[in-house]
Write a structure and sequence with these properties.
alpha/beta, Alkaline Phosphatase, subunit A, 2,3-Bisphosphoglycerate-independent phosphoglycerate mutase, substrate-binding domain, nine-stranded mixed sheet, 17 helices, 17% strand
């Protein structure tokens, strides 16, 4: 059980504020044309890496609780690790373990889902991100549930696919759709009717987060539930047609409805069951609210028709607000987090970001917990994000975030502050090298302002990241470690996260050698940051946390 931290006997801590800066999506990679971080003009970041102690942190795979080191990290598990100081088994691993053990299929929720459609004669619908990116979902989980549904006597299944192109190749949709159609064909019998019913790009429909753009969810509702939208004979036809007409990458594909004889094949109706099979929470909460909220208790958009269904998420996406009300796999219980210990110690804290990453420095940082540990000691500030394509405003709200952060530093009210700058991740996901370079240059300008404020306040800053992204903007050849080029010399954009480590820099002009930074032997991960921060504040780290990066003399 968390309790007040003990003071270090040999170091009283920083007199001024201690700050953690998370440069979202900024990894360490070789300086190639693919690297928007290295290719940008970033004199402040260059200075930090040259003059101040820096270690590299693992930010993917087992270091953040994912099943294997082939799994890229993401902002959610990254901030879990940063805020908890520990590594917990995360979404993909939890779900895989539950499927392999059979625990998922003995759960009350699965039984309710199946029993409902067998009793009502309704349809079982699966809705979620359609790839093996393993950041939000995995297609193998979907296949396992389909197989089990057939085994248990479900007669009709419809699949609503959210096209990825972000955590996987930007134009890889057919690499998933075509084999999946073969999979469905192998299962289809006179007693088992299964089809893809609708879909669209993940950045166009359904998967909004942090209430940044509810119109995405509304478009998804009209597509999946009501069956409204442009009709196609197959998902393959939809993807090929939109690519030819619009030239868009997968994540930006408009919504489509699969129809036969002019009628949608899979609207969602009374008596049906719906499983949203994403395991990551941020882009799952809003669609879950739309399904769970009774008629008259939902004001975000006109749902037109609210079918009486049994709805479940893969996980509980918000443990405090209990969204959704039903879920298939219990989330990890993340306890003994940094914020909890600091509040028990009486440390005044600030968390700030813009909308796109606000939940990461609050909810995810606090172990998937929505509320504060202390209203008196914790302040959360959200800077509203622009609702525009990020490549059009690559600077995002980094200046506005910095304005408020500096104001808070100068106020002297806060002992510990944490901030997330989304630029490297959100702009990196667009695949635009030029825009991502611009985003890094905008961030660098703000870092310079922050460091001046830290110095003025007699503070210390730790500058790090949660995973890589902007460091590889083109698909890389595994053998040559260089960007892949087609026969015409054109590079293929990469829109997913990377497997690269991230920097961890300690900016300290006040302690005069009170500690040493441990040798970087590739052993540190994001979970080592928490102990480092409390050490800098003059406290012992809890025993269950990963070790600190510094040795106090």
């Amino acid at each position: 059980m968390a309790q007040a931290l003990n003071k270090l006997t040999n170091f009283g801590g920083i007199d001024g504020p201690v700050l953690t800066v998370v440069m979202d999506g900024v990894g360490l990679a070789p300086d190639t044309i693919s690297n928007a971080v290295a290719g940008a003009y970033t004199p402040t970041l260059d200075m930090l890496m040259e003059k101040y102690p820096m270690v590299s942190l693992k930010a993917h795979g087992t270091a953040v609780g994912l099943p294997s080191d082939d799994d890229m990290g993401n902002s959610e598990v990254g901030h879990n690790a940063l805020g908890a100081g520990q590594v917990f088994a995360q979404g993909a691993k939890l779900v895989s373990n539950s499927i392999e053990s059979g625990k998922m299929f003995t759960s009350d929720t699965w039984q309710a889902i199946v029993s409902n459609v067998k009793t009502s004669g309704g349809v079982l619908h699966f809705l979620g991100l359609f790839s093996d990116g393993n950041v939000h979902s995995h297609i193998d989980h979907l296949k396992a549930m389909i197989l089990k549904a057939k085994e248990e006597g479900v007669s009709t299944v419809r699949v609503h696919i959210l096209i990825d192109g972000r955590d996987v190749g930007e134009t890889s949709a057919l690499d998933y759709i075509l084999p999946f159609e073969d999979f469905l064909a192998s299962l289809r019998t006179a007693d088992f009717d299964i089809k893809i019913a609708s879909g669209g790009g993940r950045m166009k429909i359904t998967m909004d987060r942090y209430e940044a753009d509810w119109s995405m969810v509304e478009r998804g509702w009209h597509t999946h539930v009501l069956g409204e939208g442009r009709q196609f004979a197959s998902a393959e036809e939809a993807v090929k047609t939109y690519r030819e007409e619009l030239g868009v990458i997968d994540q930006d594909l408009p919504a489509f409805v699969i129809a036969e004889n002019g009628a949608p094949v899979g609207t969602i109706n009374d008596g049906d069951s719906v499983i949203f099979y994403n395991f990551r929470g941020d882009r799952s909460i809003e669609i879950s609210k739309a399904f769970d909220a009774p008629a008259g208790e939902f004001e975000k958009f006109d749902r037109v028709r609210v079918p009486a269904v049994v709805y479940a998420g893969m996980l509980e996406y918000d443990g405090d607000l209990h969204i959704p009300s039903r879920y298939l796999v219990s989330p990890p219980e993340i306890t003994n987090t940094m914020s909890e210990y600091l509040t028990l110690t009486g440390v005044k804290q600030l968390a700030i970001s813009e909308t796109q990453k606000y939940g990461h420095v609050t909810y995810f940082w606090n172990g998937n917990r929505s509320g504060k540990f202390s209203e008196e000691l914790e302040t959360y500030i959200e800077i509203p994000s622009d609702v525009v394509p990020f490549e059009q405003r690559p600077w995002m709200k980094c200046a506005e975030i910095t304005d408020k952060l500096i104001e808070c530093i100068e106020s002297g009210k806060y002992d510990y502050l944490r901030v997330n700058f989304p630029n490297g991740d959100m702009v990196g996901h667009t695949g635009s090298l030029l825009a991502t370079r611009c985003s890094m240059e905008a961030l660098d300008l703000q870092l310079a302002r922050i460091l001046k404020a830290v110095d003025k306040a007699g503070g210390v800053a730790l500058i790090t990241a949660d995973h890589g992204n902007a460091d590889e903007m083109y698909e890389m050849d595994k053998k040559t470690k260089l960007p892949k080029a087609d026969k015409n010399g054109n590079y293929k954009s990469k829109t997913s996260h990377t497997l690269n480590p991230v920097p961890c820099i300690i900016y300290d002009n006040v302690t005069n050698g009170a500690y040493t930074v441990k040798a970087d032997e590739g052993k540190f991960g994001l979970a080592n940051v928490a102990a480092t921060m409390v050490n800098l504040m003059g406290y012992e780290a809890p025993a269950m946390w990963e070790e600190s990066i510094i040795d106090v003399k």
